[in-house]
Design goal:
Layout (H helix, E strand, L loop, with lengths): L9 H22 L5 H35 L9 H7 L9 H31 L8 H7 L1
Helix pairs in contact: 1-2, 1-4, 3-4
């Protein structure tokens, strides 16, 4: 694990991706007649936050590149150097490419583990017999 750059960690990445997905999910509620203006206002607010986060990361990246190219030749920094070298052809002018890619890989791993656990737990629950409800008299006596 390496120290992250604020704003591009797994939690922020999950938040931004979720906020960007919200309007698409809400379309299903619109088609079923279950949406409201209040829900769309919340989605709009979350989208503004997500776009603000993405804009601040882009601005910080440009400022960092400008500052570092003025002082020295830019090169990859941090333990994520191997990722940056792989992505060098795609994002050679960015210092945030490697940490964001590392966060994407970690987020994908976490989501995959959660889905596998959900499937395994769901299978175990399906195999377990459902207990019979207690008769009403026994429930009153227990209380």
């Amino acid at each position: 694990m390496f120290a992250g750059i604020p704003g591009i960690g797994v939690g922020t990445l999950f938040y931004v991706l979720t906020a960007l997905w919200m309007p698409f999910r809400e379309i299903g509620f619109v088609l079923r007649g279950q949406s409201s203006w209040r829900r769309w206002a919340l989605i709009g607010m979350e989208l503004c936050f997500a776009i603000g986060i993405m804009a601040s990361i882009a601005i910080a990246d440009r400022l960092l590149m400008w500052w570092l190219t003025e002082s020295s030749t830019p090169s990859s920094v941090g333990p994520a150097r191997w990722i940056h070298q792989q992505m060098g052809g795609y994002a050679a002018g960015s210092y945030f490419a490697a940490p964001i890619f590392a966060s994407l890989l970690l987020l994908a791993g976490v989501l995959l583990a959660v889905e596998i656990a959900r499937l395994l737990i769901g299978r175990r629950r399906a195999e377990r017999p459902v207990p019979e409800p207690a008769p009403a008299a026994a429930q009153r006596d227990a209380a």
